[in-house]
Each structure stands twice: as C-alpha cells, then as structure tokens.
C-alpha cells in the first residue's frame, strides 16, 4: 500500500492555510469612486494529503452566472480532511461586471482579452495582472467556467488546446458529450496560462444572466470528475462517463436578412446539410427567408432572442469526423446520467 504523503501549508495573498484547513481571502483589485475597495473573493481549501493545485474560476465575464453557482455548490461538498492537494475556488473574477450584470469592465474592456495584464495599463490590464500573478500562477491546473453571451445559449461543452496531453485528459475526464479543440486567443486566460504550462479547460454551458439547472449540474459533476482524474477526490466517477467526441470544426450560421426568427431546431439537435434551421419573417408576414444548414452537424449554440439583423449569428454548429448520430446518442446518455434536476 502506497504511503500517504502529508500535505504542506499553502499560502495565497500572504494568508497561510494550514493542512486540512480552508480560508477565505480577498484580492483587492481596485476602488470605487468612494474609495470603497473592490475585492475578488477566493476560497482556498488545503487538503490533508499532498496533490495538485487546481484553480476553478467563474465570471471572468461578469454576466455569466452558471459557473458562480457551480463553485458555490463545489465548495459546499469539498472536505479539506479528505482532499488531496489544494483547491483555489474563485466564483467571481470580474467583480465589476458581476455587480453591473455586464460582460465587461466599466471601460467596456473584455477581461478575458487582458491577460497577462500589466501594472501600468488599463483597469482591465491591472486586474488581469494581479489575478494572474497572485492567483493563477499558484495553480498547476485550471478550469474556467463560462456561459454563452447574452441572448445566446450553449450546449454543455469543453474547449481547450487539445494538442496539450494534460489538457486533453482533463477535457475527456470532465465528461461533456462534445469537446472542441479551440485555438488559443491572445490575451485570454487559457493562452497565457498555457505559456506557463498550466493546462486550462473552459466549460461552456447555458446563457448569460440566467441559471440553467442542467448546465449547473453538469458543470459540478464535470469539475468533480476532473478532480477524481487528478486524484484529488477519492473514489471513481459516480456515473459512467463516455469520452467526449472532438469536433473537427465549428461555424456560426448567420442571418441573411433582418426580421423575426422562427427556429425549427434546438440545442443538441442533429442537423443535415440543406436542412432548414429557421425561418426569418417580416412582421407583416409579407416575406420569409430560410436559414439553411451548410453542413451536417450538431447544434451547440443558439441565439435565443427571436429578433435578428442581417449578419447576426443565429446557430453555432459543430462538425464531426464521426457520424453525427454518435454525438446525438452521447448527448442523450449525458442528460440521463446527470439525473433529475430539482
């Protein structure tokens, strides 16, 4: 039997967290006009046994709320006495956006395009610099929780640079039916962490400013699956999880005219090349334009607002080397495995 290796105290933001202990720390990133501090709340759970340091963060885009609830539920379940390694849980990264129910910072910058940031730059650059240097660099694995943008909903999916073996392992362990080999975007948390050999996967599910029970349940189960894969939690995954099918490519199908959308397909549905995805009508019904699927695939994202302008993205479709029916079956099994949603 392998000898248990006792963990060591963990320090974050000058706060020492003992073995088998947890502490809440606050990262001050800015002040309001009133000089009231704006702080990012962080919970550190330092396990009894040694192991990886995993950061789980949400709301880098301040209006993406599902991940905030995933982190809350995760913290209610994790026990420092039985944890291996250290969990850094950050439910709200973009505290400004969260307060204002906005994706962006007050200067309209996207915090997820500001990494690694700088001490002398914009508000976003300074926040990114502090968060990256003082928190992200303390981890050796990371899960970044997201949703679709406002009025857009995403099928539960994992995105990551799957050319990195550990990133791919984490993506497969998470357990969504679809994984996307997503290129690294300059200024994103994923891109900058990758440069330091910190593997990051991004979970996308649901819609901004909305709680989605399935997306939250799947996100919580997925994070726990990754933690078990990293041997941070004891035991095997509670349910059989099929490997995600990796998308060969994805693309958005856009509206060619302005009008009112009548969708004919839904998230997770298998579509065939040439199939009608939606109709766009004029308010008086005098004209009608069909949106046609350019290739066969699975709908992984959809605009939920039934009003579009010419050029608006309406459906996000993933294309697979495998038969699309396999992915559809995976999705049905995935929903069944999540179980009843209360």
TrEMBL record:
Keyword check for Metal-binding: yes
Query: InterPro entries recorded for this chain?
Result: AstE_AspA_cat (IPR055438), N-alpha-Ac-DABA-like (IPR043795), N-alpha-Ac-DABA_deacetylase (IPR053138)
Task: Print the keywords alphabetically.
Answer: Hydrolase, Metal-binding, Zinc
Q: Name one GO molecular function term.
A: hydrolase activity, acting on ester bonds
Protein name, entry field: Succinylglutamate desuccinylase/Aspartoacylase catalytic domain-containing protein
Q: Which Pfam families match?
A: AstE_AspA_cat
Which cofactor does this sequence's record say it needs? Zn(2+)
What SUPFAM superfamilies has UniProt attached to this entry? Zn-dependent exopeptidases (SSF53187)
**Ranges of residues in domain Succinylglutamate desuccinylase/Aspartoacylase catalytic:** 51-230
């Amino acid at each position: 039997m392998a000898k248990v290796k006792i963990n060591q105290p963990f320090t974050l933001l000058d706060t020492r967290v003992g073995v088998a202990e947890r502490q809440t720390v606050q990262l001050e990133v800015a002040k309001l006009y009133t000089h009231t501090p704006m702080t990012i709340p962080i919970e550190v759970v330092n396990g009894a046994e040694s192991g990886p340091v995993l950061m789980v963060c949400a709301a880098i885009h301040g209006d993406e709320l599902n991940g905030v609830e995933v982190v809350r539920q995760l913290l209610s379940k994790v026990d420092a006495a039985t944890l291996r390694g250290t969990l850094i849980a950050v439910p709200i990264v973009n505290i400004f956006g969260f307060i204002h129910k906005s994706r962006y910072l007050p200067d309209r910058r996207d915090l997820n395009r500001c990494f690694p940031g700088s001490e002398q730059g914009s508000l976003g650059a300074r926040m990114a610099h502090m968060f990256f240097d003082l928190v992200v660099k303390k981890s050796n694995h990371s899960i970044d929780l997201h949703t679709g943008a406002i009025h857009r909903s995403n099928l539960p999916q994992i995105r990551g640079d799957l050319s990195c073996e550990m990133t791919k392992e984490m993506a497969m362990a998470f357990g969504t039916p679809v994984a996307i080999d997503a290129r690294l975007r300059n200024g994103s948390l994923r891109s900058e962490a990758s440069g330091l050999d910190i593997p990051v996967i991004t979970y996308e599910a649901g819609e901004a400013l909305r709680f989605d029970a399935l997306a939250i349940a799947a996100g919580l189960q997925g994070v726990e699956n990754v933690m078990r894969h990293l041997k941070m939690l004891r035991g095997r995954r509670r349910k059989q999880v099929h490997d995600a099918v990796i998308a060969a490519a994805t693309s958005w199908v856009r509206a060619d005219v302005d009008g009112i959308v009548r969708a004919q397909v839904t998230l997770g549905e298998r579509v065939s090349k040439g199939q009608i995805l939606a109709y766009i009508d004029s308010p008086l019904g005098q004209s009608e334009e069909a949106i046609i699927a350019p290739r066969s695939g699975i709908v992984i994202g959809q605009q939920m607002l039934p009003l579009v302008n010419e050029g608006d993205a309406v459906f996000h479709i993933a294309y697979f080397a495998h038969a699309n029916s396999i992915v559809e079956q995976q999705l049905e099994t995935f929903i069944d495995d999540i179980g009843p949603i209360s």
